[in-house]
Each structure stands twice: as structure tokens, then as C-alpha cells.
Write a structure and sequence with these properties.
little secondary structure; disordered N terminus; 6-stranded mixed sheet
């Protein structure tokens, strides 16, 4: 039976390595001890104790083909071997510092389950210096060498500040969940990269204590690059600017999901969208009362799906000028927006599968539905569109037949409480129920 490779370091081999480092002065010949100017971003990763007795561990999770090796120092002159899963550093007094460095050209982690991460016990610490010192002792490298490189590195730790992240060339998942759940972290580091990689910031600060979002200067996006990046950051009130005009699939998906205090959305100037680009972007942002303008006329599959889901302070929907739809483009877009009183016009005359599926579901303050000019229905196009819109009193459609074979209007007027008026062509069969014309409504034909 194979033994996890990192377990070898817990036995005789790890003790022998420590002895070798002690005998040789605890130094590696190929690492310079020169003290460099911190202004030049050449200071190694540093932890500063916020009280007495902070303990710093580094854990190995899963199974790595090669265990990264590090050194630590209290003065940046004398360096000691640091072996993950074995070495523990204690900062005895408030203000004590420890520095970390290592030459790890293959990165620190393999994937989302096989990685190394810091663990801080007893006392919060400030993190500072250059995180790239963990893979390049000179601190000069600005290219992240591998996928998942810093995955979960500080997740759930008691850090109050973040180290510098100077890399300008990123890789897939390189910062995945790096500061996720860091509830004491209030300020994000600068993110200078202008060209992103797939999933590079995925869950990066999710559930952290950030009270302001980092600047995001990137103009070349990648699929899922900002996915869940700031999810559940409940102290962020203003979204950062998003300057990119060329999007990527799912680039902003769930970016601000459950940011319960977000009040100001960014401008979204793109006119051509990509698949899922804004999916659930502001989901459950319950204090967002004004939606950004959405000028795009070239839609993509699922581009706006769940975009404002459960935005319970949103009273007015943005204009939606597109006349050509895409699969699932508006699916559940305003689902559970319980304050919505003004729906947008929907000018498209040709529908797509799932295009309006659940679009206004449970919008129980909406009194007037947008006019629906399409004359032919398609698969799931109006499915649960006005489900439990209790106050709705007016609907106008232009289609001439119901079509159960493709579930076009299943549950679309379920549980409408008030009497209202249904406007439709004279050729449409006058059938009533949750899948047809609301029970008790007056029908006016044209």
C-alpha cells in the first residue's frame, strides 16, 4: 500500500534534514542573506504578532508529488529549515516578526484538495512582504509558475493584513480561495495583473472581512476569472470598477453573491456578452436598490441568469434593449426581487429556449407585466415567469396557441391573487389555470 509522500518527512528523514541544517549553520549556500529595500517589494513574506504567543504552522493537505521546502528567519540574517507538517514557529511577544522564503519552482499546491496552507493559532498576526518569496527567494519573480500555486494558502487564518501579490502573469486557479474566510482581513492587497487566467481569483476573498474591494485593472479577462471572488463579503458597500469591455464566459459569475451590504454596483459597459458572464453576479445583494445599465444588444446563453436573484431592495429593473435572445439569457434574472414594481420592456419577437424562465418569479409587488410580442412559443420560454406575482393585474401576449408539448407556460401564472385583465389575440383558446389565463381574470382580445 502506498504511503502519502508527505508522511516521510515526519520520521527519521525530517529529523536528519533538520540536523544537517543546524550543523551547517542553518543556511543554504544558494540563498543570499542580503537585506534588501522593502520599498522595492523584495522583503520576504513576513508575519508580525498581534500579541504574545502566536503560533504559525504550515499544513500539507492531500497528497503532493513533492513537498515544498522553506526557510524561516527572525532577523533575515540567520535562516532555519522549515518543514511543513513538522515545524512550528512561535512568536513569543507582541510585535515579534518571522520571515519565510523558499525556492519552489513547481509551485506550492497541486489542486483544490492537495495543497499547503498556513495555520495561525492563539493570536492574530499581520502578514506583509512579498508572497512570491515562497517560490523564489530573490523576491523578483512576477510570473506564477503553476496552476493552483497559492491555493488556500491563508484560508480561514487569523491574519489582519495581506502580503503583497506582485505577480503580473497568472495561472489557472493560482489564487483560488487564498484568503477565503479570513474574517479579520479588512483590506485587500493590490492586484496588478491586467491579463487574467481562468479561475485565477476564484473564491479569493469569499467570506472574508474586507470592507472595501480591491482595484481590478484587468482588461483581458478569462473564463470564471472573478467567479465568487467577493462572495459573502458583507462589509463591502461599493463595488470596484470593472473596466473590461470584452468579456469571457462566466467572468463575473457570482462575483458579489451574498454581499448583503453592497449598495453601489459597477458600470457594465460591454455591448457583446459571453456565456454566463453576469450569471448570479449580484445574487442576494439585499441592499442593492439600483441596477447598473445593461446596454448589451448581443446576448449569450445564460448571460443574465439569476443576475439579481433575491435583490429584495431593487424596485426598478434596468432596460433590456436586445431584440435577439439566447438560451436561458434572462432565466430567473429577477427571481425573488420582492420590491420590484417596474419591469423592463421585452421587445424580442423571436424567443429562445428558457429565455424568460422564472424571470419575475415571486416578484410580489409587480402589478403590470411587460408586453410579450412573440407570436410563437418555444421550449420552457415562459416557464414560471410570473409565478406567485401576487399583485399582477395585467398581461398582454401575442401568441395564438398554447403548447404543452414543450412546457412553454407551465406554472407561469401560478397563484395570482387579484383579478386582472388578460389581453390576447382572438384566436388564442380561452383556457384558464396556472398554465393558461389566470383564474377569474377578464379576457380582452384584439
Amino acid at each position: 500500500m502506498m504511503t502519502k509522500k508527505h508522511l516521510y518527512f515526519k520520521g527519521f528523514a525530517s529529523l536528519l534534514l533538520v540536523v544537517i541544517f543546524v550543523i551547517t549553520g542553518c543556511k543554504k549556500k544558494d540563498i543570499s542573506d542580503e537585506i534588501v529595500n522593502p520599498v522595492d517589494n523584495l522583503t520576504p513574506l513576513c508575519f508580525t504578532a498581534g500579541g504574545d504567543g502566536a503560533k504559525i504552522y504550515m499544513d500539507v493537505h492531500g497528497e503532493l508529488p513533492t513537498i515544498p521546502m522553506f526557510e524561516y528567519s527572525y532577523d533575515r540574517k540567520t535562516w532555519y529549515a522549515y518543514i511543513p507538517d513538522t515545524t512550528v514557529v512561535t512568536l513569543e511577544n507582541y510585535g515579534d516578526k518571522v520571515y519565510f522564503r523558499g525556492d519552489n519552482p513547481n509551485g506550492l499546491s497541486l489542486n483544490t484538495v492537495s495543497y499547503v496552507s498556513f495555520r495561525i493559532k492563539n493570536i492574530p498576526v499581520e502578514a506583509s512582504g512579498n508572497v512570491m518569496s515562497l517560490i523564489d527567494t530573490t523576491c523578483r519573480l512576477k510570473t506564477i509558475p503553476s496552476k493552483y500555486c497559492f491555493s488556500r494558502l491563508f484560508a480561514e487564518t487569523r491574519i489582519t493584513t495581506a502580503p503583497d501579490l506582485p505577480a503580473t502573469t497568472l495561472t489557472d486557479y493560482c489564487y483560488y480561495n487564498m484568503f477565503g474566510g479570513c474574517e479579520l482581513l479588512m483590506k485587500a492587497p493590490k492586484l496588478p495583473a491586467k491579463t487574467l487566467a481562468p479561475y485565477c481569483y476564484y473564491h479569493m476573498f469569499a467570506g472574508s472581512g474586507l470592507n472595501s474591494a480591491p482595484e481590478l485593472p484587468a482588461t483581458h479577462l478569462a473564463e470564471h476569472c472573478y467567479d465568487y471572488m467577493l462572495s459573502k463579503c458583507n462589509s463591502i458597500y461599493v463595488a470596484p470598477s470593472l473596466p473590461a469591455t470584452q468579456l469571457a464566459p462566466y467572468c463575473y459569475s457570482s462575483m458579489f453573491d451574498w454581499c448583503s451590504n453592497l449598495m453601489t454596483a459597477p458600470k457594465l459597459p460591454a455591448t457583446t456578452l459571453e456565456e454566463g458572464c453576469y450569471m448570479n453576479m449580484f445574487g442576494a445583494c439585499v441592499n442593492l436598490s439600483k441596477a447598473p445599465d445593461l446596454p448589451a444588444t448581443n446576448l449569450a446563453d445564460y448571460c443574465y441568469e439569476h443576475m439579481f436573484y433575491a435583490c429584495t431592495s431593487l424596485a426598478k429593473a434596468p432596460e433590456l434593449p436586445a431584440t435577439k435572445l439566447a438560451k436561458g439569457c434572462y432565466r430567473n434574472m429577477f427571481n425573488d426581487c420582492t420590491a420590484l414594481t417596474q419591469a423592463p420592456e421585452l421587445p424580442a419577437t423571436v424567443l429562445a429556449k428558457h429565455c424568460y424562465d422564472g424571470m419575475f418569479k415571486t416578484c410580489n409587488q409587480l402589478t403590470k407585466a411587460p408586453e410579450l410580442p412573440a407570436t410563437e412559443l418555444v421550449y420552457y420560454c415562459y416557464y414560471e415567469m410570473f409565478y406567485e406575482c401576487f399583485q399582477l393585474k395585467s398581461i398582454k401576449v401575442h401568441f395564438t396557441k398554447w403548447n404543452d408539448s414543450v412546457i412553454t407556460t407551465c406554472g407561469w401564472v401560478y397563484d395570482l391573487l387579484h383579478k386582472g385583465t388578460f389581453y390576447c389575440p382572438a384566436s388564442l383558446p380561452q383556457e384558464f389555470g396556472p398554465d393558461r389565463i389566470p383564474e377569474g381574470w377578464t379576457v380582452e382580445t384584439f
